[in-house]
Amino acid sequence: MEKQNKRFSKLTILFYVLAILTFIYSIFSIYKSYEYVNALVKAGQLTISSSIGDVIQYFVDNSSAYIFYGFGFGAFGYLIYLLKNKEAKTDKPAAAEEFTSIDEEEDLLEDEEADLTIEAVAEETDE
Q: Which of 31, 25, 106 is nearest to 66 (CA)?
């Protein structure tokens, strides 16, 4: 079985790193949102049970964009990875078995000519 050389391009690695960084920042954003809501609850300015919709909306507004960007960067990196590997496969000759050198082609022609002369000699001796 042929071992395939699947390497990551620099652009793929860049997009994967950006995806990881945006996911890390989204976790940081969720943590900071939690701290802010927790500070409001401790100060008595907010009750979670009465304004749960606002709390959820605050978390989603502060972190959903970064999660979306993280998935986007990851998808772009994976797409580039697939395209580069497909390009590498098509760079190889498609039918390596059918490719012959000029010397091999001349040998095949000589063999065909020899077969034809043998057949011609055989026909002459039959007559």
A: 25
Q: Judge contact between 79 and 38, C-beta under 8 A.
A: no
Question: Tell me: the pLDDT tens digits for 86-125?
Answer: 877 776 655 555 555 566 666 666 666 666 666 666 666 6
> Any idea which residue has 């497909």 for tokens?
86
Query: Does the predicted model carry a pTM greater than 0.70?
Result: no
What residues contact 88, with CB distance under 8 A and at least 6 apart? 5
| 8 A C-beta contact, residue 66 and residue 23 | yes
* Look-up of token digits 């960007």: 69
